[in-house]
Amino acid sequence: MPLDCTTPAVELDSLETARQALLARPGFLLRRCLQKTSGRFNEGCAALGLTDRQYDYLFVLDIVEQLGQTELGEVLGLDRSTNTLVLKILERKGLVTREIPEEDTRRRLVRITAQGRDLLCRARTAADESQSAIADCLTAPEYRQLLMLLQRVLANLPEQS
To answer: Could you tell me if 73 and 26 are in contact, meaning their C-beta atoms sit under 8 angstroms apart?
Structure first.
C-alpha cells in the first residue's frame, strides 16, 4: 500500500491498519523485541550499575580472557569512538584493564578483572532471564531457527559507514 502523505488517516480502523503495517516491518519488530528484552535486563542490572552493552564486553572477555581493543570493538560491532568510551567506563569501574604491549605500543590489550568477572556472574541471572523471555515464546526448534535466521541477516547486511 503506497503512502499518502497529503491526507491524514481518519478512518475508524486506521489505528488497526497502522498496527498491522508496523507488524509487517522487520525493523519495527526487532526494535520492539530489543526494547522488551533490554528493559528486562536493565531492570535486573540497575542495582549493579551495569548496562547491557557493558555486559557484552565482560561476556566476551570472560571467554577470550585477553583481546586487542580494536578486535573487541569489531566483534561487538561498535565504532572506534564508542568502543573507547565504553572501555574507559569499564576501566574506571575496575572491571577491565587495558595494557600496552611492549612489542606494539599502538595496541591496547583488554582483560577482565576479578571484579569484572564477579559482576558478570551477578548479572548473568538478568541476562539469562532476558534470553528466556524470547525462548519461552517459541519451541526449541523455533528458537534455534530464529537464531539461525538472525545470524544470516546479520552476516549479510553491510556494515554502517
So the answer is: no
Q: How far is CA 31 from the centre of its chain?
A: 11
Q: pLDDT tens digits for 129-144?
A: 889 999 999 999 999 9
Q: Which three cell numbers stand for residue 54?
A: 557493558
DSSP letters for 55-91: HHHHHHHHHHSEEEHHHHHHHHT--HHHHHHHHHHHH
DSSP, res 94? T
Site of grid cell 538472525? 150
In contact, 123 and 54? CB cutoff 8 Å: no
Residues 57 and 72 sit within 8 Å (Cβ to Cβ): yes
Q: Name the pLDDT band for 105 (thresholds 50, 70, 90).
A: confident
- Could you tell me the three cell numbers for 7? 491526507
Domains assigned to the chain: 28-156 (1.10.10.10)
pTM of the model as a whole? 0.82
CA distances, 31 to each of 77, 81, 92, 153 (Å): 17, 23, 30, 15
Partners of residue 97 on adjacent β-strands: 111
How far the first Cα of the chain sits from its last, in Å, is: 31
